[in-house]
From TrEMBL:
It comes from Caldicellulosiruptor morganii. Gene3D superfamilies: Periplasmic binding protein-like II. Its main location: membrane. Pfam families: SBP_bac_8. PROSITE patterns: SBP_BACTERIAL_1 (PS01037). Belongs to the bacterial solute-binding protein 1 family. Keywords: Cell membrane, Lipoprotein, Membrane, Signal, Sugar transport, Transport. CDD domains: PBP2_Maltose_binding_like (cd13586). The keyword Plastid does not apply. It is found in: Cell membrane. InterPro entries: Maltose/Cyclodextrin-bd (IPR006060), SBP (IPR006059), SBP_1_CS (IPR006061). This is Maltodextrin-binding protein.
Amino acid sequence: MKSFKKFMVIGLVLVFSLVVLLPFGSGFATSKKQLVVWSHLTQNEVKALQPLADEWGKKNGYTVKVISDQGSFQSFQTAAMSGKGPDIMFGIPHDNLGTFWKAKLLEPVPANLIDRKNFVAMSLDACSFDGKLYALPIAMETYALFYNTSKVKEAPKTMSQLITLAKKYGFMYDVNNFYFSFAFIAQNGGYVFKNKGGALDPNDIGLANNGAIKGLSLIRDFVLTYKFMPKDIRGDIAKGNFQNGKIAFYISGPWDVGDFVKAKVPFAVAPLPKTDDGKPTPSFVGVQSAFVSAKSKNKDAAFKLLKYLVEESQVKVLFKVGSRIPVTTGALSNPEVKADKIMSAFAEQAKVGIPMPNIPEMQAVWGPAGNTLSLVTTGKATPKQAAEAMVKQIKQGIAQMQ
């Protein structure tokens, strides 16, 4: 009996020693709960995001790890399905959300988490499916009109003004790229998929309606009638001609600003010219988004952290470090943001923009749309013929996805 008691005492001492020596993060004993954030933002943005996460964690009794995820977007899906994914994905283009939504990996955003009036409405649409919000927007990106201020003092306000000035000073852009040319297709009512009550209908394609055909006719005229640019123009050629002062007008996005500043190009940026009857020209807008994984075991806390990171990162991280356009009205009215005339111009354009469709069926659009533009700008098909053929090809592509 004594030897048995002695054995029990020794065993208890050993167990107690193991408990004391175990690291807090082992799951056996823990002083803090943990949340994990994966981010596809740049390394510098991820570094700047960690202190904000630490601030929230300190106030709420959590350790938060912000990890730079350099893998493919699909790596999240694989990790989440196996139970090894993050609680939050912070910084992913909104048009990649559709795959995760179909896989039921996006946790719906609680109705009372944010005040929708504090966000650019378009950015919330980009993160919604069937009228329900599944992610939060964190930044937006679009293209606008660059103009050489040594050639023209003010940006053209209408399409007629642009054409008149372009005849004298030159105008180019990546015309056969549907991402850019969509703006002219949309300015008179063309659309990719009809938005019906917040849900995109892939069976209702508006790329061959009267507005779309009118837009394709204008694009054809840019090349064949006005001869602003060759039919095989590429984006890098157009950029080079603007940078070298050969043309006064160029359509592109914030990604070109740094090169123009370094090259000391005298330039400014303005929203795309309106139609002659005053309608805005809606560009495609990309929205960086953030969401809580449906597989997270700490969803309530994850949503609170997500809200904090979105609100606090707008100016401190996304604008200052990432040179991205904020999506909250508060950040857009920040004096430092408003003082940046270039980013403010892109923001003004984004407000009238249209989010790139976030449903998977969009993948069936890019190829036929690009081919259609090439047919139109080379004169191999009329805008009407090309548009009707494009819609037929898109429908066939969607059918193959089913």
